[in-house]
Amino acid sequence: MALSMPCDMYDGHWERGHTEEQIRPFFDYLKTIDGYDKEKLNAAIEKGLIFKSTIPLGYGLGSSGALTAAAFDKFYTDKNLDLPELKTLLARSENFFHGNSSGLDPLTIYLDQVLVVEDDRIETIPKLELNKQFALIDSGQTRNTKILVSYYNEQLQDPDFSDAIVQLNSLNEQAIDAVTSQDQELKPIMAQISQLQFDFFQHMIPDTVRDIWKSGLDSGEYFMKLSGAGGGGYFLVYGDFSNLENAYSIIPLGTTRLL
Predict the structure, then answer these.
(1) What gap in Å lies between CA 238 and CA 99, rounded to an integer?
(2) pTM of the model
(3) Which of 256, 258, 227 is CA-nearest to residue 109?
(4) Number of separate domains in the chain
(5) Are 236 and 142 found together in one domain?
(6) Of 59, 62, 134, 150, which residue is the least packed, with the fewest Cβ within 10 Å?
(7) Each residue of 90-130: pLDDT tens digit?
(8) Is residue 258 part of a domain?
(9) Which residue range is the domain that position 228 belongs to?
(10) CB-based contact 55:61 (threshold 8 Å)
């Protein structure tokens, strides 16, 4: 189960220029997927079309998702798809970058709506007005999502790790319910998520945030969580993190992947 929301502080657009090295292979990859207009993609390559975005790369805020959504909007011929079909297609399109995409980031960006997703069920909900207890903290380094996804899949062979994922999925559902319905208190749920991830996801927690993460757990004032694959970029922080604001780069919440 996932809760995903668009980020209003970033944007992107197409413009002519010198085709970036990564764009051309992406366009060539899209030509192998039925439904993308090969002639338009070839013309885009000839024109040197590039996607200019303000989204930082390798930060877990959907830079590849935005490009995928923009490419679907510009080059896909028949957009009359239901939400599960659209998510599947966008996942296949974004696989170029991550190897195994969920399709959630480009779907959220393309629809520009808050989504709750569970298996094949996709629900759009009104935009959430999150309180000031949520923010993003900058780890100061980028990440390679494909490598981290591969590592995660390898770790699933460990029974202790796979059991932790079962617990984490249950807590994640409780947290999503707490955020969307406010029927239960979020703080104790976030505390458990933060502790579980700290215990089992050390490989995804860079040195630049490990001490901050532990300090939050020890004090109980705030709790941290991976944003997407972790490993770098932004991390989610919840609670009273005012004592961090002078020492670390913290921005108001607006993220492609919340929980």
Answers:
(1) 30
(2) 0.83
(3) 256
(4) 2
(5) yes
(6) 150
(7) 999 999 987 788 899 999 999 999 899 988 899 998 777 66
(8) no
(9) 134-252
(10) yes
